[in-house]
Each structure stands twice: as C-alpha cells, then as structure tokens.
Amino acid sequence: MSPADARIIRTALTRADLKILAEARFGDMVKAVVDLDRGIMAVGGELHADEEALLLEDGSKQGSLWGINFYPEETGEDWVEFDSMINVRPSQGNRSRTVEDANVRAAIRRVVAQLVKDA
Length: 119
What we know:
Oligomer: single chain
Number of domains: 1
Shape: globular
Radius of gyration: 13 Å
Largest sheet: 5 strands, antiparallel
Order of helices and strands: EEHEEHEEHE
C-alpha cells in the first residue's frame, strides 16, 4: 500500500501496510474511521473528518462512524486508540473524544480484526 490520501478499506490489509502509511504521515500512527454497520473503514487521512467525509459520500451513516488511531508497532490492545474529535456526540451518549461504550469499542475491534491481518 502506497502512502496517499484517505481511502476506504473493504478487504484486509496488513499491519505492514499501516506502518507504511504511518511513516508517510505521522511517523508512528495512522488515523482511521470505522463504519460499524458496513464493516469497512477509511484510513490514511490527515484528519478523521477527511475519512468520515469519504465514508459518508460512499453511503455510510453518521451514527455508525467512529474515529480511532492505529499504532502498528505497538502490541496487544494498545495498538488501537479510541480517540477522535468525531467521537464527540452527546446525542449518542458519547460526550468525549474517547469511545466511552465498551460494547462499541468491542464492535470496533471486531471490524478491525476482519480488516487488518496480524491484528
């Protein structure tokens, strides 16, 4: 996977792919937005909002989108961080940048496990 702008991931990629994206933009981190309903995600944008917009244009629903960060070099559960401005949505009970609901975090991890090999 070559570094470029945000793109939608519908089939699995690897942590090595994410590492290339990380090195190209932020050094050790890749931003991503996961669509829980559709089981897809967007990666590689400068802002979570860029990836969110790409998914919305592709037919995703706002309430299904959650922003995360990948740290491909990390191990265990620490390699996924549930932090993004797009996660602030009091109408859905999420009042901070962190994904507060453990069930939502688990659902995000399931999508990530399907779309990122070596995860």
